[in-house]
Structure prediction request, 145 residues.
Amino acid sequence: MKINIINGPNLALLGKREPEVYGKNGLKEIMNLVIARGKELDIEIETFQSDIEGELVQYIGNCMGNTDGLIINPAAYTHTSVAIRDAIKASDLPCVEVHLSNTMAREEFRHTSLTAGVCIGQIMGFGAYSYILALEGLAKQLTNN
Ligand code: DQA
Prediction:
């Protein structure tokens, strides 16, 4: 089984960026934790980060037919991007939306997700562990048990 993890804008700054909100771990450390959990579950994981909306759209398109599922933290694009929503839908891949913070407990503009409606589920508020929960949930769906 293969799962691709996609991270959106400003997530390369994790560790330095608002650590009181997003935690002290850098993106690489977080991805390494998820890759390690993937190994335990016999899941191959590929990761990608971009600050650029079009690159995220292209990457999702390239996943089509080449992987079993997606985990995405669209970051700020969650609240704005019809293009990323359409790319997830077009890929026809099961996708889980992830957020480190609980966006529902933050500013009102973060309460709307344009992408969650085309995902099989959404996990937020557990910091780095949100990604592990997403991986476990998606793996369960893909193996149907
Ligand atoms: C985020 C939440 C978004 O609102 C924000 O723009 C981010 C990170 C999170 O993981 O908590 O960049 O997606």
Q: What stands out?
A: Residues 85 and 115 are 5 Å apart (CA to CA).
